[in-house]
Amino acid sequence: MKPMNIAIVDDNPVNVIVIEKILKSAGYDAFWKASSARELFMQLEEHAGKGKSPLDLILMDMMMPEMDGIEACRLIQKDDRFRDIPVIIVTALGDSNKLAEALEAGAIDYVMKPVNKVELVARIRVALRLKYEKDWHKENEAKIRSELELARQVQTGVLSLPFKKEKLEIDAVYLPSFELAGICTPGTALTTTGTELFFWISWATAFPPLWSACLSPRLCRIPSPGMYPRNL
């Protein structure tokens, strides 16, 4: 597992030092420190150009000058680059309404001050595990999309060029499937003078497209769902 980057955002330097010591004692040594939400956003913008989320977790104080933790959570949720970064609110404020507001704004959890080491580390581990799993799913989805795009290019490359004669016209149509399945779907029926030409395409994941064409409907059997068409 890659090192997890954690941001500590608090306007009180003492609180930052306390949380920093807890993180180090728990084995976390990759973290940022910011004295305000605006400083955090400046650091996020500075690192965002690398294409990946620069942080894996934010420990955010709720009561800060200029911008409090609740407003910072709202701004994080509005930015597609940062909205997947989990935020844990660290606060001495026991107002249940404010805590609920913070959770509704995008925070996933909260820890009360004075910070309990065991509780903080436990909540951090849960948040980082969820972040790691979410990142894994996003990377896996991107890999699948890339492989599907490669398959689309391969399938498109084997399509025949249009064929035209006096009484016959043949064309190929690519109909991609948005779900992985082994179904057989009808393609295009082209009508020429007295002749109908039917194409059937299979988008089964494990097999290349199977094509079947016949010059007359009575020579071509219509398949049941899941079967490949074939000439009789």
Order of helices and strands: EHEHEHEHEHEEEEE
> Stretches where pLDDT falls below 50 for ≥5 residues?
181-232
Task: Classify the secondary structure makeup into a structural class.
Answer: alpha/beta
Give the averaged pLDDT, no decimals: 77
Number of beta strands: 10
Beta percentage is 15-25%
Main-sheet strand order equals 2-1-3-4-5
Shape estimate: elongated
Helical amount: 25-40%
What distance separates the N and C termini?
Answer: 56 Å
Task: Please tell me how large the radius of gyration is.
Answer: 29 Å
Major β-sheet profile? 5 strands, parallel
Count of helical regions: 5
Explain this structure.
Mean pLDDT is 77; it is low at 181-232. A 5-stranded parallel beta sheet has the order 2-1-3-4-5, sandwiched between helices. The protein contains 5 helices and 10 strands; from the N terminus they run βαβαβαβαβαβββββ. It has helices at residues 13-25, 37-48, 69-78, 96-105, 117-157; strands at 6-9, 31-34, 57-61, 87-91, 109-112, 163-164, 169-170, 184-192, 195-202, 211-214. The protein is elongated, with a radius of gyration of 29 Å. Helix 3 runs parallel beside helix 4 (96-105). It has 232 residues and is an alpha/beta fold.
